[in-house]
UniProtKB/TrEMBL annotation, chain A:
Keywords: Cell membrane, Membrane, Transmembrane, Transmembrane helix, Transport. The keyword Transcription regulation does not apply. One of its GO terms (biological process) is transmembrane transport. Belongs to the binding-protein-dependent transport system permease family. It holds the Pfam family OppC_N. The chain crosses the membrane at residues 46-66, 123-149, 161-183, 189-207, 301-324. The lineage of its organism: Bacteria, Bacillati, Actinomycetota, Actinomycetes, Micromonosporales. Residues 119-321 form the ABC transmembrane type-1 domain. GO terms for cellular component: plasma membrane. This is Peptide/nickel transport system permease protein. It comes from Micromonospora avicenniae.
UniProtKB/TrEMBL annotation, chain B:
GO terms for molecular function: ATP binding; ATP hydrolysis activity. One of its GO terms (cellular component) is plasma membrane. The keyword Nucleotide-binding applies. Keywords: ATP-binding, Cell membrane, Membrane, Nucleotide-binding, Transport. InterPro entries: AAA+_ATPase (IPR003593), ABC_Ni/Peptide_Import (IPR050388), ABC_transporter-like_ATP-bd (IPR003439), ABC_transporter-like_CS (IPR017871), Oligopep_ABC_C (IPR013563), P-loop_NTPase (IPR027417). Belongs to the ABC transporter superfamily. This is Peptide/nickel transport system ATP-binding protein. It is a peripheral membrane protein. GO terms for biological process: peptide transport. Residues 29-280 form the ABC transporter domain. CDD domains: ABC_NikE_OppD_transporters.
TrEMBL record, chain C:
CDD domains: ABC_NikE_OppD_transporters. GO terms for biological process: peptide transport; transmembrane transport. It comes from Micromonospora avicenniae. The keyword Hydrolase does not apply. Gene3D superfamilies: P-loop containing nucleotide triphosphate hydrolases (3.40.50.300). Signal peptide: none annotated. The keyword Disulfide bond does not apply. Pfam families: ABC_tran (PF00005), oligo_HPY (PF08352). Residues 40-288 form the ABC transporter domain. This is Peptide/nickel transport system ATP-binding protein.
């Protein structure tokens, strides 16, 4: 290996945007956020994945409307369309003009409308969990980073503690215990309760990464001169946090938010898959995939539709998150 | 592959008695009509636009300019350190009789560090933090002396450290950059640049990050080393004071072009370009009336993407109107301005400039 | 742009003065120290930073170690010195961005050394700071209007005519186009950004501004613009300045009094004429002679100091400059020289002060006493 630091540094100097960064002077008042939007608009991946996400969200929001137009509910069973073994009649899992994605073997429920409602559940859980974790993370991270001292030490300690807890084991142990605590051995568990427990579990484990990110950013900003200028003018905690600090870190927060959502979607599916998530009654990706695995050989369409939907959703989210990061911080992509 | 350039010996000052068969007469470095363009998202940046100069061995050329004047880009082009994908370089750069523009990257790299070396402004970022200072210097030596052993390279590095005025060089050899003070780091940087006896040394703002008392030491050191090694030096700086101390010749750059060139005496004592006047009159001086206002250059340095038409200095020039539209439409070429070898790129006539200088400039700031 | 705005600026400055909330006596600012009550009185000011050394050890960096100085109303005091001399730390303590370890800071007779945020609130309006880095000192997410209005907003001040009018007036005072109210910092050049920082510092009509290397990050041609602007503001608005800089030539053009610092101590303080024409501390002399002088070509004779500034972690005993001083004797290592007045406003902390005018170019090299030009 030839060690020639001089060359390396010289090249690095040139890489960093070149010695002469031209300045736009002819443009009036383009804010950094607006510039990021313009960059995002220019990015084709961002536009395509963003369009897909928008489409999925509209589907989820309009689920009752779609149910009305489609004419079939998520709990309706079509036993008459199943054969003696409980398998849907017709080709590829019973796909027909009435049942676009076919029927579930066994219960005979319509896969399409269950997918739409499953999307609704998944997105609701993921967004709710992401909003809660982001809020928790921002609040704790900002307090730890800006105030420092013993508060920082305590929050750091709790963060480390949380990270040390095994997520799956706790989720496996906690969910049934909670359910038993609120409902009896034989009582039917309400779907809303299952959703709330899932969101709660995600919130408890998910806030640490955002908190760490925000804390680091705040510590870096705290020493910047514009923050000191506000301090020298006598600004209080509220002004410092909401006017000076947060506007400068919303970009990484937004990126971490957009990457947390798909993570929660897959986590929800995984938990439902191993049976600690939602009950069978609530339509969800995880339950559908779990049930469909028994029919992998006999009815591949049952696996295919939920599988491809969850894949497309998570893929689009991740692509969009990356594009967003590039648009907000153009240096990282070079 | 290539033979070692200097006989590896304990005497760093020892130059090979028979230098390579390159022309020993004439300037060591000749830059002719150098143009450097970068393609960026926002358009083409003409960072250097037709610059020519020569430097002889044993002489120092000071290149003066503000940020964005193209002075650093020029030096990086000479060293071949630009990213080839986004950069277009045309013109001629000849070092010791060898044409560099268009030479394969591999060959330029062989010259770099051996025939020419660079001293950077910030030694902390130019030195690798995880290797000892001595190891980095020894490594720089071994890159160009493949036959040299570890022990020999170490000896050479210790010698160089001693030569640049670092006390206890053998002990300092095994220390890391963070254990050096700012001045010592810059000395180590110089030792590394000079370890292969380069004939051309480019120093890019070598003292800007240093305190004045340390700056004085470093400037003295460079002068001493030049007397000893007889190398050609290019000193890139924005500080006219530094130029007045070390330079033999001066090139003033503005917006990627040379606006004035001449001996240090000519450029600082009988400056001919209004931009040079502006620089001289805006620098506060240690002498004269401290209560008088400085005479700044109005406006801001231009953007290289959107350079003003004609003479790029005309929007900031107090005398641009004296030539009708000429300053706005026609790019002035470097032309002789009185003294021998004194060139200036300005549309004003020599007589007019002399008169204006006497009436408006000669009594303010350091131009006094 | 600069030239054409001169007239408008003057008018705005006059308005600024006429609307001064305190009816300050319109006395002419005199260069010579007057007997007036000092605006700022600093006594024994010190700041020690604890640093971890090794595995468990902790030691103190004595960044600032006992400063005494006064600033009178409308006076400009320059704090000069090399890196590590504590000048920036001092500036930050004056505006209370850092908590002093020891000593007192009095502003208009009130002790503000350890005042809390609420007690400081009325003082914030009188005491402002301008930063060195024009890129780091403006919030990139705020418009220029919001940046300049920040001190007003934070202190709940509603200026007559509204915030916007006030901000535009300030933009005019510092020589920027008031129409640029809604632009963002990244759309301005370094010099223009520094003007925005100055406008922000002026927003509360302070009596004292701490300027921390306000021009050293700027291009040469822009430095002169900003120095001229600060001089004009100082004259027109009768502002007092603590001007922190390493460039002695700039300080000479801006300051009426100068304090030279070395390793956390003031080694010499005096009127500008004294410091530049009759410096008495060896360090002041060395500093002055180390400045490359454009008016002299070639390496002129200089006092060459050897070595670097020692670390403030372990400063030399006695006189801190003795390790680099060519006059150092035994007493310098054992006894710390006090800052004593030598007539006039000049005070020197040295056992063997120099006398006579600056030797100029007939200097010696390291370790050799400068040959004084004897008349």
């Amino acid at each position: 290996m030839s060690l020639s630091p001089v060359e390396g540094v010289a090249l690095a100097e040139i890489e960093s945007g070149g010695p002469e960064v031209p300045e736009r002077k002819d443009v009036v008042g383009r804010s950094p956020g607006r510039l990021a939007w313009i960059r995002l608009r220019r990015d084709r991946t961002a536009m395509v994945s963003g369009g897909m996400l928008l489409f999925f969200m509209l589907l989820a929001l309009a689920a009752p409307l779609i149910e009305m137009l489609y004419g079939i509910g998520p709990k309706e069973q079509f036993q008459s369309l199943l054969d003696g073994f409980g398998m849907p009649l017709g080709y590829s899992g019973g796909v027909s003009g009435d049942h676009w994605f076919g029927l579930e073997p066994g219960l005979g429920r319509d896969i399409f409308i269950r997918l739409i409602y499953g999307l609704r559940t998944s997105l609701f859980i993921a967004f709710a969990a992401a909003v809660i974790t982001a809020t928790l993370g921002v609040v704790l991270g900002t307090l730890a980073g800006y105030l420092g001292g013993w508060l920082d030490a305590v929050i750091n300690w709790i963060t480390d503690l949380t990270l040390a807890m095994p997520f799956l084991v706790i989720a496996l142990a906690l969910t049934p215990t909670l359910v038993l605590r609120f409902y009896g051995e034989r009582e039917a568990v309400s779907p809303a309760f299952g959703v709330a427990v899932l969101i709660g579990v995600f919130a408890i484990f998910g806030w640490t990464s955002t908190a760490r990110l925000v804390r680091g950013q705040v510590i870096a900003l705290r020493e910047r001169e514009f923050v000191e200028a506000a301090r020298a003018s006598g600004a209080g905690l509220g002004h410092m946090v909401f006017r000076q600090l947060l506007p400068n870190i919303w970009a990484p927060i937004l990126v971490s938010f957009s990457l947390a959502v798909p993570q929660f979607i897959t986590s929800e599916a995984a938990l439902s898959f191993i049976g600690v998530g939602l009950s069978d009654e609530t339509p969800s990706f995880g339950r559908m995939i779990y049930r469909s695995l028994d029919y992998l050989q006999t009815d591949p369409a049952y696996v295919f539709f939920p599988g491809i939907t969850i894949f497309a959703l998570v893929f689009a989210f991740n692509l969009f998150g990356d594009a967003l990061r590039d648009a907000l911080d153009p240096k990282s992509s070079r | 592959m290539d033979r070692p350039k200097s006989v590896p010996s304990g005497q760093p000052g020892d130059r090979p008695s028979v230098p390579e068969q390159r022309s020993t007469s004439g300037p060591y470095l000749r830059v002719d009509d150098l143009r450097v363009r970068f393609d960026t998202e926002d358009g083409v940046v003409r960072a250097v636009d037709g610059v020519s100069f020569t430097v002889e061995r044993g002489r120092t050329l000071g290149i003066v300019g503000e940020s964005g004047s193209g002075k650093s880009v020029t030096s990086l082009a000479i060293l071949g350190l630009h990213n080839a994908k986004r950069t277009t370089i045309t013109g001629e750069i000849s070092v010791g009789g060898r044409q560099l523009v268009g030479l394969p990257e591999e060959e330029v790299r062989r010259l770099r560090g051996r025939d020419m070396a660079m001293i950077f402004q910030d030694p902390l970022s130019a030195l690798h933090p995880y290797y000892t200072v001595g190891r980095q210097i020894a490594e720089a030596y071994r890159v160009h002396h493949p036959g040299a052993g570890r022990r020999e390279a170490r000896q050479r590095a210790v010698d160089m450290l001693g030569r640049v005025g670092i006390p206890q060089p053998a002990r300092r050899f095994d220390q890391y950059p963070h254990e050096f003070s700012g001045g010592m780091r810059q000395r180590a940087m110089i030792a590394m640049a000079l370890v292969n006896d380069p004939d051309l040394v480019i120093a890019d703002e070598p003292t800007t990050a240093l305190d004045v008392t340390v700056q004085a030491q470093i400037l003295d050191l460079l002068a001493d080393l030049q007397a000893e090694f007889h190398s050609a030096i290019i000193m890139i700086t924005h500080d006219l004071g530094v130029v007045s101390q070390v330079a033999d010749d001066v090139l003033v750059m503005y917006g990627g072009r040379a606006v004035e060139r001449g001996s240090v005496e000519q450029v600082l004592r009988r400056p001919q370009h209004p931009y040079t006047w502006g620089l001289l009159s805006s620098v506060p001086s240690l002498h004269g009336d401290a209560d008088e206002d400085l005479v700044p250059i109005r406006g801001n340095p231009p953007s290289l993407i959107n350079l003003p038409s004609g003479c790029s200095f005309h929007p900031r020039c107090r005398y641009a109107d004296r030539n009708g539209d000429r300053s706005r439409t026609e790019v002035p070429q470097l032309r002789p301005a009185g003294g021998e070898g004194h060139l200036v790129a300005c549309h004003l006539s020599t007589e007019e400039r002399t008169r204006l200088y006497r009436e408006d400039i000669a009594h303010v700031g350091v131009a006094r | 742009m600069w030239g054409s705005l001169g007239e408008r600026e003057e008018r705005s400055a006059a308005e600024y003065r006429s609307r001064e909330r305190r009816q300050a006596p319109m006395s002419e600012v005199s260069v010579a120290p007057s007997a007036a009550e000092p605006l700022l009185r600093v006594r024994g000011l010190a700041k020690h930073f604890p640093v971890r050394t090794g595995f468990r050890g902790q030691s103190l960096v004595r960044a600032v170690d006992g400063l005494d100085f006064d600033v009178r109303p409308g006076e400009t005091l320059g704090l000069v010195g090399e890196s590590g001399c504590g000048k920036t730390t001092t500036g930050r303590m004056l505006v209370r961005l850092l908590e002093p370890t020891a000593g007192t800071i009095e502003f208009e007779g009130r002790d503000i050394t350890h005042a809390g945020r609420r007690q400081l609130r009325p003082l914030r309006q009188d005491l402002q700071i301008i930063f060195q880095d024009p890129y780091a000192s403006l919030n990139p997410r705020h418009t220029v209007g919001r940046i300049i209005a920040m001190p007003l907003q934070v202190n709940g001040i509603e200026p007559p005519g509204g915030v916007k009018a006030r901000v535009q007036e300030l933009l005019e005072i510092v020589g920027l186009n008031p129409e640029h109210y809604n632009r963002y910092p990244h759309e301005f050049s370094g010099g223009q950004r520094q003007r925005i920082g100055i406008a922000r510092a002026l927003a509360l009509r302070p009596k004292l501004i701490v300027a921390d290397e306000p021009v050293s990050a700027l291009d040469v041609s822009i430095q002169a613009q900003v120095v001229n602007l600060l001089r004009q503001l100082q004259r027109d608005l009768e502002l007092a300045f603590v001007f922190i800089a390493h460039d002695l030539a700039v300080v000479r053009h801006f300051c009426q009094r100068v304090a030279v610092m070395y390793l956390g101590k003031i080694v010499e303080i005096g009127d500008r004429v004294d410091i530049y024409e009759r410096p008495q501390h060896p360090y002041t002399r060395a500093l002055l002679s180390a400045i490359p002088d454009v008016t002299k070509l070639g390496p002129g004779g200089r006092i060459r100091l050897t070595g670097d500034v020692p670390t403030p972690l372990d400063p030399p005993s006695g006189c801190r400059f003795r390790t680099r001083c060519w006059k150092a004797q035994e007493i310098c290592a054992t006894e710390e020289p006090a800052l004593v007045s030598r007539g006039g406003g000049q005070a020197i902390a040295c056992h063997f002060p120099e006398s006579g005018p600056v030797a100029g170019e007939s200097g010696g090299t390291a370790g050799v006493t400068v040959e004084e030009v004897s008349k």
